[in-house]
Amino acid sequence: MSRTEPPRRLVLASNNAGKLAELQALLAPLEVELVTQGSLGIPEAPEPHRTFVENALAKARHAAAASGLPALADDAGLCVAAFGGGPGVDTAHYCTQFGYPKSDAHNVRALLEQMRDVEDRRAAMVSTLVALRAPDDPEPLIASGRVEGLIARAPAGDGGFGFDPVMFLPEFGCTFAQLPADVKNAHSHRGRAARAMLALMRQRWWPAA
Fold first, then answer.
1. Is-catalytic flag, 75?
2. Sequence ranges of the domains in the chain
3. Of 74, 75, 104, 120, which is the active-site residue?
4. pTM for this one?
5. Which of 30, 60, 151, 171 fits as disulfide partner to 71, beta carbons 3.0 to 4.6 Å?
């Protein structure tokens, strides 16, 4: 891999279409193509850790080893103040602990049910990105982004994915799901992490990019 030319492809250690679209747009200045691990026949990696950065690193190593490509992994979640920072790394499967099948809609439903009588609605959406040139890269690139807001009493908006319909942003007076995609990308936790990652890649991997 040339230091001045980015590789044609980076494998994204996720099969989430929403993450793929957001990260592809946010990293467009690097002129790289993100491909999901699933499109390469790579199964999902175990996520046994209790922090975002450890899980992202495990996923990136798994995808890089299986694909032979540089890898990018995102581990993100919702951290609710009233729940001591939960669901955190369990965000994607949050609803299953309440008997619902895994889905974004069921996650939102379960969260609102659990917060029905909770007055403290403070929450943060957190994204941690890890990039590796190879599975044994001793110097992974790590970038994080965080956005604070409030859990709405009811879903609003049709955009985004995950908990976007109930993540109310006082700064905008609406939820993430009500924002245009370009505005969301400019202000989201993943957008902030991706901009930091882009800067790191330009500095450390591809100075001329």
1. yes
2. 9-205
3. 75
4. 0.89
5. 60
